[in-house]
Amino acid sequence: MRSSLLFPRIKHAGVIRAPHAPTVAIRDRMTGTCVPPSDSLVEYAAYIGGKRIEALGIPDALDLVREHNAAVRSANEANAGEKSNEKGADKGNAFVWVGLHEPDAPEVEWLAEVFALHPLAVEDAVKAHQRPKVERYDDSLFVVLKTVAYLDHDVLTATSEIIGTGEIMVFVGPDFVVTVRHGRHCPLSDVRERLEDKPKLLNRGPTGVLHAIADHVVDRYLGVADLMQAELEDVEAMVFADVSARDIGRIYNLKREMIEMKRSVMPLQSPLSTLSQRRMIPSEMREYFRDVVDHLARVCEQVESSNELCNSILQAALARSNALANEDMRKISSWVAIMAVPTMIAGIYGMNFEHMPEIKSVFGYPVVIGVMVLACSLLYRGFRRNGWM
């Protein structure tokens, strides 16, 4: 198998390479294994006893981890569990963590050979655009988590993208974790650094890493939901202003983004709820996953309430827009009615009939003008009193 020494983008966080590293490359070249692309490999590491251990490559790291776990299990059986019951004792939870970002099929297929991943899960990891789910394949779990991010803009328009989405696929086995991330949002470097700073968390094993990733993703949900809530409140405050009430496009864009977020968050609730009940999850880790489920339930409630608020804002904006249109129509109709009076009088006296009252009178013109002004004034006063003007 091809060692990851051939991957140029590995970040080792202080791990020093062994001087005989080329030997691994020669050994892999002799096996004839196809060299996978290297652009998507972000980082890999072996963790034994909660600490990061130097390894020549991914297969070598996996061998070290499995040898260590086998030795710990043998020692625990020999000591009848005395050592395993000691506080802080090594429980044989050593594992390898490999992180990929938008890999191609050859890379994932190569890792599938190394870690014995199921072909169906590998296919889903390559294609992406999967629904949130938790599936079991033999002695491993395949978890799909949707990621969301709030995209800040200087000026929001009706076509601005507010919610960015992505995916994180997690392969969890007895002694390995493989994360495949799609999208540029929600990187896992912070999660890895936080776990490496706390060996007690790393000593929980692969399920501890899965919990940390799920907790990180759900916390991002909560942050985005809070930002969307604030955005909706701003739009709600402006919806009754004359200018913003007509900007239905921006409100509809918020509605569309809320639907996108709802589509990413809501389907995760059911599979994550059942995750804590699976036999592969240790009993001491189940309460941690239940805590994540509680946070997710809070996010789902907030997303649902924000979606309903967005519906109310959209309906209020439409009603406000119609009310403004009706108000404009009443003003126009009022002025048309006022101007109809002098138009009617001028039209009648413009017919040039010989026998019409006040035609030959000296005061005929001022009397007609006075009648026009009086009638228009009375109409204006009446419309003003009724709120039409």
Question: What does this molecule look like?
Answer:
With 389 residues, the protein is α+β, with helices and mostly antiparallel strands. Helices cover 54% and strands 13% of the residues. The protein has 11 helices and 7 strands. The protein has helices spanning 22-31, 58-78, 105-115, 119-127, 189-197, 199-202, 206-238, 248-265, 269-275, 283-349, 364-385; strands at residues 41-48, 51-53, 95-101, 133-137, 140-150, 163-172, 176-182. A 7-stranded mixed sheet has the order 2-1-3-7-6-5-4, with helices on both faces. Strand 6 (163-172) and strand 7 form a beta hairpin. It starts with 21 loop residues before the first helix and ends with a helix. Residues 1-37 have low confidence and may be disordered.
Keywords:
7 strands, alpha+beta, disordered N terminus, 11 helices, 389 residues, 54% helix
Separation of termini?
Answer: 84 Å
Alpha-carbon Rg, integer: 36 Å
Spatial ordering of strands, largest sheet:
2-1-3-7-6-5-4
Task: Quote the average pLDDT.
Answer: 78
Count every helix, treating DSSP H or I runs of 4 or more residues as helices.
Answer: 11
Beta-strand portion reads 5-15%
Order of helices and strands: HEEHEHHEEEEHHHHHHH
In the predicted model, the low-confidence regions spanning at least 5 consecutive residues are 1-37
What percentage of residues falls in helices of 4 or more residues? 40-55%
Secondary structural class: alpha+beta
Instruction: Tell me about the largest β-sheet.
Output: 7 strands, mixed
Please state the overall shape, judged from the principal axes of the Cα atoms.
Answer: rod-shaped
Overall number of strands: 7
Q: Tell me the quaternary state.
A: single chain
